[in-house]
């Protein structure tokens, strides 16, 4: 009897997705957590990581949570006002543990996966901010995320006594002028008070998924990652109808013509009253996809 052929890996490099059964369970838990009264940011981030990187098992997810707990345990007990908190967390994470960002992080998928960021001590601003928030929150800090245009940072304190820090730069405390320059560099517009409103956990998750999609869109061979990010975003309680269009297009791109056409037609029905032009375009694309079956 000849030995069985080894399992074939896709032609693209890792990370590879988990088996279908594992993926289905992760998505069920992701949807349940996203719809809970108080969504757990770190748990949602780790489920995204497990959906993208099939090597992340339950033990690995638990280990990541334990590491966040252990880091929080190294912070001084109630160091003081918001500035003292910001400096203490920066010394621990950016200083003693070397968490920071580099320009090359924007080219790496791992920079958007929490378990990889914890291992590498490198990541995108938003994932480094998640580490800052989750460690500081566990230690009792008044901490939250701030979704500045083009650059995510963390805030300590309240609107009347706020201190911002930039985890991408090792936790550097930002002056008012620093923050204005960050916004001006990203948008060319002045800083608006609305830009400093604390970001809700699901807003952070949506932004992380958008980053993953942006990475995959620049690499057509990784349409599997783009499709995963779209389908996870569709599990969030509040989601734009446009996601159905995006999913349909990705399914067609990946050769699932019938399923992709059905999704495009479903999107066309959703927008038929409010956007006839978009409806017509989606129906034409669905028709073209079905024609590829002939």
TrEMBL record:
Positions of region (Disordered): 1-27
InterPro entries: SirB1_N (IPR032698)
Biased composition (Pro residues): 11-21
Domain annotation Protein SirB1 N-terminal: ranges: 64-210
Coiled coil residues, start to end: none
Regions that span the bilayer: none
Pfam families to which the protein is assigned, alphabetical: TPR_9, Transglut_core2
Superkingdom of origin organism: Bacteria
PANTHER family given in the database record: F-BOX ONLY PROTEIN 21 (PTHR31350:SF21), SI:DKEY-261L7.2 (PTHR31350)
Family: Belongs to the UPF0162 family.
Protein name: Tetratricopeptide repeat protein
Organism of origin: Streptomyces griseoluteus
